[in-house]
Design a protein that fits this description.
By secondary structure, the protein is an alpha+beta fold. The protein has a domain of 114 residues. Helix content is 16%, strand content 37%. The chain has one helix and twelve strands; from the N terminus they run αββββββββββββ. The strands form four sheets. Strands 3-2-1-12-11 form a five-stranded antiparallel sheet, with no helix packed on it. A three-stranded antiparallel sheet has the order 4-5-8, with no helix packed on it. A hairpin with a 2-residue loop joins β6 and β7. The longest helix is centred in the N-terminal third of the chain and has 26 residues.
């Protein structure tokens, strides 16, 4: 005889069933009613000429990313990534060190490249999530050297297809 005392195992069993139901309901609610992802910025926000000290210039234009005569214009898009806004180049374009300096080359095979936009604060550069800070991006060459490309006036891109 138990004299009105319930079985503790039954009470805990109902508690854990209810807890599981609450967790599943919360997860499903988040999936269906949670915040939607922020849309990627429009490409025209970054059109222009990009220059870096000791690095070759390139242009971003409506017909694509233009890296000079050796590399055909290639499609690009801006994407929101975990680290911030990145320039996604569809083709495998690399910054390569040569005897005469650095130049952009299209490598056979492989996939596209992501180059992050950065903002400088003092002597440090940080990845940016803000569309108003899309004037500088970071590209690392094949030898590990990093270049900070800053957007310049389009007419400063000498030697790059000006009709793009």
């Amino acid at each position: 005889m138990t004299y009105g005392i319930s079985d503790p195992d039954k009470e805990f069993r109902w508690f854990f069933h209810g807890l599981r139901l609450a967790v599943v309901a919360g997860f499903l609610g988040f999936l269906f009613f949670g915040a939607s992802p922020k849309p990627s910025p429009k490409n025209d926000l970054v059109f222009g000429c990009y220059k870096a000290p000791d690095g070759p210039s390139f242009r971003l234009a409506a017909k694509g990313a233009i890296f000079g005569a050796e590399v055909p214009p290639t499609p690009f898009r801006l994407e929101n990534a975990k680290i911030g806004i990145v320039l996604n180049i569809d083709d495998p374009i690399n910054l390569k060190r040569t005897a005469s300096g650095y130049r952009f080359v299209q490598t056979p095979g492989g996939s596209g490249r992501n180059y992050p936009f950065v903002v400088r604060s003092g002597d440090k550069a940080y990845y940016t999530h803000e569309e108003r800070n899309l004037d500088m991006l970071h590209i690392t060459a094949d030898d590990g050297r990093g270049f900070e490309y800053r957007r310049q006036a389009t007419h400063l891109c000498s030697g790059i297809d000006a009709t793009a």
